[in-house]
């Protein structure tokens, strides 16, 4: 067991190939699950994540059924993420100051209660759209603290050497639940209605609460907490702004999260307006995307490094594939393209997450990850209503294509900035008879000249 903040490395400087290295040895895919505390955490999250995905599908479909509007779905999503935009950085300050395990007891219980309350309202026939809006906003308030607490608690459970692997497995966990949750939600909605999906989600949070209670606190890696003081929010922003290996990945995931990840709006619109499907079809599309995301997470768990050039490449391909999928003429082609879109989207998220965490001083990690989550999910209140309006006004295909175009342009721009910061230049040439585009150090070009 590590003691003191020496268990974690100091911030990694930007290098020529602009990457944050985690360990020179290639990890096994499930290596962090050998740690008992993380295994308990992982198991509890499998159950609650499944319930969370059930609620997401049921919530989107309930709002669409009550209003018939993609904009209303966008408003629901926006309300859920608005608190992160408004208060996300303050959540990070709290997480850096307070014991993360105790915080998670509170947040996980509160999230379970919101699901149960919406379930009771729906099953008793009293649910209205404003109830869903209110529940989404309250859930978002809890998430302000829960997200950075869960993100940073991972390092206390597994330590520095297993952090990248555990971050990838967390994503694999979430995406595994995404395979099961939408399918179960589709069956429940069709058979007995949305209320049972909400209620079961509330009950599912008993699992992570049990996992937290059973942990051995003596086996946690101690991380120094930030003392209470003035100016900590400004200190966190200044810390990120002075490090290109932090600020530009965060900027990129902000654009991707705000404009490229509005799938509840797009998929519900494609099912309802383009392909004429039902709740089962909507669940199927989410399941296919989750299959791709799970593949991306498992591949990430095998990588020993988190390269920012991989982040940029995956983000660019993600945006391009969204544009291609938006004009797919047949349902089967659209559905098939969701698999690689899910894989690339997950690769973007995991690579950015692990790169940022590994390059951050432990005492600042709560604030940095709060900023990360704020721009990734907190931009949704801006992007979701806008994307919902475009989708309602110009159709599902144009709405999806617009999101993909913005994601691709953001990836290309950030890639060029990171290359410049890292002392790289674009080189176009031939390799084994094929055209090749890559970044190389400026000094190599000068030598060749």
Automatic annotation (TrEMBL):
TM ranges: 61-91, 103-123, 195-215, 246-267, 279-301, 308-325, 331-356, 368-390, 396-419
Compositionally biased region (Basic and acidic residues): 16-26
UniProt keyword Transport present: yes
Keywords attached to this entry: Cell membrane, Membrane, Transmembrane, Transmembrane helix, Transport
InterPro entries with a match to the protein in the record: MFS_dom (IPR020846), MFS_trans_sf (IPR036259), TM_effector (IPR010290)
Span list, region Disordered: 1-27
Ranges for domain Major facilitator superfamily (MFS) profile: 29-422
Subcellular location: Cell membrane
Gene3D superfamilies: MFS general substrate transporter like domains
SUPFAM superfamilies: MFS general substrate transporter
Bilayer topology annotation: Multi-pass membrane protein
Main localisation: membrane
Superkingdom of origin organism: Bacteria
PANTHER family per record: INTEGRAL MEMBRANE EFFLUX PROTEIN-RELATED (PTHR23513), STAPHYLOFERRIN A TRANSPORTER (PTHR23513:SF11)
Protein name (Swiss-Prot/TrEMBL): MFS transporter
Organism: Streptomyces solicavernae
């Amino acid at each position: 067991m590590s003691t003191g903040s020496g268990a974690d490395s100091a911030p990694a400087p930007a290098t020529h190939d602009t990457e944050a290295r985690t360990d020179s040895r290639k990890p096994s895919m499930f290596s962090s699950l050998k740690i008992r505390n993380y295994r308990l955490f992982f198991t509890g999250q499998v159950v609650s994540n499944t319930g969370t995905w059930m609620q997401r599908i049921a919530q989107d479909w309930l709002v669409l059924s009550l209003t018939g509007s993609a904009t209303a779905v966008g408003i629901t999503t926006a309300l859920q993420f608005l608190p992160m935009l408004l208060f996300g950085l303050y959540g990070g300050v709290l997480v850096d100051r307070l014991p993360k395990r105790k915080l998670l007891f509170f947040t996980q219980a509160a999230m379970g209660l919101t699901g149960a309350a919406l379930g009771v309202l729906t099953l008793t026939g009293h649910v209205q759209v404003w109830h869903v809006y209110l529940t989404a906003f309250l859930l978002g308030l809890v998430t302000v603290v829960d997200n950075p607490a869960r993100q940073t608690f991972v390092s206390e459970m597994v330590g520095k050497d297993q952090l990248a692997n555990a971050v990838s497995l967390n994503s694999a966990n979430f995406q595994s639940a995404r395979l099961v949750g939408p399918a179960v939600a589709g069956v429940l909605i069709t058979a007995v209605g949305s209320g049972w999906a909400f209620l079961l989600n509330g009950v599912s949070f008993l699992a992570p609460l049990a996992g937290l209670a059973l942990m051995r606190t003596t086996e946690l890696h101690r991380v120094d907490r930030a003392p209470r003081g003035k100016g900590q929010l400004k200190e966190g922003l200044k810390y990120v702004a002075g490090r290109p290996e932090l600020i530009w990945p965060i900027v990129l995931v902000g654009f991707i999260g705000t404009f490229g990840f509005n799938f509840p709006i797009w998929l519900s619109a494609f099912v309802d307006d383009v392909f004429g499907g039902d709740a089962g079809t909507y669940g199927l599309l989410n399941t296919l995307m989750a299959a791709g995301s799970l593949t991306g997470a498992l591949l990430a768990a095998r990588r020993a490094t988190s390269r920012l050039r991989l982040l940029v490449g995956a983000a660019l391909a993600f945006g391009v594939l969204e544009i291609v999928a938006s004009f797919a003429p047949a349902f089967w082609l659209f559905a098939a393209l969701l698999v690689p879109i899910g894989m690339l989207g997950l690769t973007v998220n995991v690579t950015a997450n692990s790169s940022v965490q590994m390059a951050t001083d432990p005492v600042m990690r709560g604030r940095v990850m709060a900023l990360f989550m704020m721009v990734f999910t907190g931009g949704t209140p801006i992007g979701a209503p806008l994307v919902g309006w475009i989708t309602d006004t110009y159709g599902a295909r144009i709405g999806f294509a617009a999101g993909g175009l913005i994601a691709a342009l953001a990836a290309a721009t950030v890639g060029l900035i990171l290359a410049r910061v890292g002392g790289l230049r674009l080189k176009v040439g031939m390799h084994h008879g094929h055209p090749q585009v890559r970044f190389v150090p400026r000094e190599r070009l000068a030598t060749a000249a």
